[in-house]
Amino acid sequence: MASSLRGEVLNLYKNLLYLGRDYPKGADYFKRRLKNVFLKNKDVKDPEKIKELIERGKFVMKELEALYFLRKYRAMKQRYYSDTNKTQ
Hints:
The chain is built from 3 helices and no strands. Helix 1 runs parallel beside helix 3. It has helices spanning about 5-20, 25-40, 45-85. By secondary structure, it is mostly helical.
């Protein structure tokens, strides 16, 4: 694997690990799953396949971020708008 791809893969792993701290099923669950996925693909040598896997990982990062933003939005909405629904 080229060193630039290796750096990208390591950066992706670190970013996903950081995002996994707030995962709904727990950080340990997320860390185990993440490690298993990366170990499953450790023998991939084709640079094009590695780039595809990196793009898939970036997609997962975006999905996790969306999940967290949605959870925050729902909590804020419940906190600030639940009183107006009760009075109607």
